[in-house]
Amino acid sequence: MKRLLLILVLFLCLNCFSQQKESVRVAFWNMENFFDPFVDSTLTYNEFTAEGSQHWTKSRFYKKRNNMYKVILAMSENNPIGIFGVCEVENQYVLNSLFNLTPLKNHNYRFVHYEGPDKRGIDPAIIYSKDKFTLVESKTIPYYNPEDTAYRSRDILYAKFIDGEDDTIHVFVNHWPSRYSGELETVGSRACSAAILRRQVDSINAVAPEGYAPKIIMMGDLNDCPTDPSIYDVLKARPISEYEDGNLVNFMAGNKSLGFEGTLKHQNDWQIFDQIIVTPQVLNDREGLHYKENSARIFWTDFMLEDDPTYHGKKLIRTYIGPRYFGGFSDHLPVYIDLVK
Description:
The chain is α+β, with helices and mostly antiparallel strands. 24% of the residues lie in helices and 29% in strands.
């Protein structure tokens, strides 16, 4: 009897420990021009079609889709990603084709997507595991710059989730204005996006019950590095080592353990434009979902990279460089963190 009781106690302890250590991956990836191959009569931009300048055929679309799912399967380590933010996806057709018509269908994913104002028709989206999270609400937060009302940029996508134990997670997926017209010429546009996001975070905190600190996760291609003013000063997202009241925590800032130099390469310079930022409660909570220490990573595999004969080292195998088709994956690497409870 004593031996049976001992076995039962050990089993319960091990089961409890495994539940406490169960992790949920939260990831983001800029998928680089993930278009369907069809002409959209509602858009003036249809270059990613068979007759367009990019000669985007069905076979090229399927190759791109298959490249995407191979990376996602590798990153998920055969365990569904809990919350997965993406950008540069055209519509629900490409999302459905990727997550419901490939081996990813076995992971029971759902997605949140709204048609946005981008002139090329590319948007952010949120994919989530229906087995791990329940969607409560979602909406878009429009970009608006009072100093340049004619300029339009991507919406910020917001979704609110609860997990199986009613732990609430707020998620914002971002794709801030690019540097296409020059870094200095566009710095104000990204500062504007940062201010919009910061106001959203402050609004959620302001209506929270007294004594309750909301868990908010912000992710995206911010087109700025962690030390740039839009992120460091306007959003007030700082490294863990610089955390103090009023600041957000940027896991991609000042972190030497990310596993790779950067998320995209410009000539010989790797930069970290793709970031995951959280409110302090995600870092400090020890009862509900919280950050798994040292889990922040830039994800890469050998099959996503090739030798760079011009600038040395490695470079990303992209889908396109300008009009030239290479049949690769993306011009960005994904990033992720793990949450545990």
